[in-house]
Amino acid sequence: MMTSVTKKTDNTLLGRQEVELLVQFKGATMSNDVARKEVAQTLSVDEKLVLVKHIYTAFGKQEASVHAFVYADDKSRDLLEVRKKKPKKAKAEGTEAAAKKEKK
Predict the structure, then answer these.
(1) Which of 66, 82, 80 is nearest to 34 (CA)?
(2) Number of structural domains, the chain?
């Protein structure tokens, strides 16, 4: 993949850099995980400090504009970003539903 940084803004108040990259790829549009690895490799930062916000592609082109945030540390990332909760396992949901039925 060919990657070039098109825009880079330091946001010291939020402890991050806001970055736009132009990535040339082959095949299907890349996933967020692949884009995160590409941004981390291009900027020489730790992969877990990168958060991909958007991946924009144009029809028929094999290039994408990737918008990402690169945080200075884990603490600033955790303060600003909301993490998705992992879904409960089906077994746990089944026991909760059974407990509700017993109460009725």
Answers:
(1) 66
(2) 1
